[in-house]
Design goal:
- This protein is about 40% helix and about 15% strand.
- It is of the alpha/beta class and about 400 residues long.
- It has 2 domains: about 260 residues, Type I PLP-dependent aspartate aminotransferase-like (Major domain) (Aspartate Aminotransferase, domain 2, 3-Layer(aba) Sandwich), CATH 3.40.640.10; about 120 residues, Aspartate Aminotransferase, domain 1 (Alpha-Beta Complex).
- Helix 3 packs parallel to helix 4 and helix 11 crosses helix 13.
- The longest helix has 21 residues.
- The protein is globular, with a radius of gyration of 22 Å.
Amino acid sequence: MNRADFPILQETVYGKPLVYLDNAATSQKPVQVINAITYAYEHCNANIHRGVHKLSQIATTMHEEARAAVASFIGAASPKEIIFTKGTTDAVNTLAFSFGEALVHAGDNIIVSAVEHHSNIVPWQMLCQRKKAQLRVIPLHADLTLNTNALQDLIDDHTRLISVAHISNVLGTKNPVKQIIQIAHSHGIPICVDGAQSVPHIHINVQEMGCDFLVFSAHKMYGPTGIGVLYGKEHWLDQLPPAEGGGEMINHVRWDNTTYNTLPYKFEAGTPDFNGSYAFAKAIDYILSVGQDAIEQHEKQLVQLTQQAMHNIHLNGCTLHIYAEEQDKYGVISFNVYNSHNTLIHPYDIGVLLDKQGVAIRTGHHCAEPLMDTLGIPGTVRVSFGLYNDENDIHTFASALEKAISMLG
């Protein structure tokens, strides 16, 4: 990996070199991805699957090659199991509507976990409200790991699906999805894994994992915005109805009846982001060129070094609390600072002062308000890493944080 591949890292903020530590929100893009977008619009921009002319044929080939690249990247059995969506949120909503319309009825229940992002909560809430079903929540242990023993008590004959995050976007902890999948499948229940925070950072093979569905976004894995993936085992996707109607997802349309297209197209109504899919494939190529194992080890080392650096700064009578510090972390650290009177220094204030020093981090509830309620806090300061971050970024962050604490404490 060459940091020079990422032009935005050469930018300055308030006269300071940019240190970008908000990768859990979105990642920066290498020139290989940026150039792919430009190339597609300049040389082969045409709607796909519908045209007999040369440009349409080229664009169609590029789009379907990108689908095959995604399938290979996550170990899917077939490209037919890859549904392109607008992103993770759209993928969850697509599944919640489609699965819910077909298989959820009054009195049924859906299970999620206490660490979920809103995008893996609200669509299931909406489904439950629509169908008069119930949403159940896997609780946390005191050490902020999932209580999988409690999951056994939540499951009953009316449980239709379990949907859990692979890695928490707040805590950076990896949930025991293989264990959860085994429990779910022992009861004949399918499981969806939210891979938004895992697919960019660790190697994923859906067949080895055993999940029935997986959702993730390109923009968190150095790809373009506006495109993501719903992976589903073919036998499940065959059972489910389309979530949206329109062009592309049809076989034949008559006034009295419409028949639907085959997989994966029956879930892809309208014109897809065919240029985005081409750039997405280039992002996958970039990740593979660096090496997924190398990325995982690099980011885990950055987490360890950052936590050490945070404990070495002068706190000026304040207290620093890192959430789930004793757990293995995957690219994310969330923390808060309390002043000498044990009053929370608002995360926003820390974020503003870090920004003035060129350090981009995230503050707030991180679209995980129920988790914040469990922790009894309004939000956290979050640092999150990408493959291009290095030890210099850590030193700059620690120095900036020390200065912010000296001003706020």
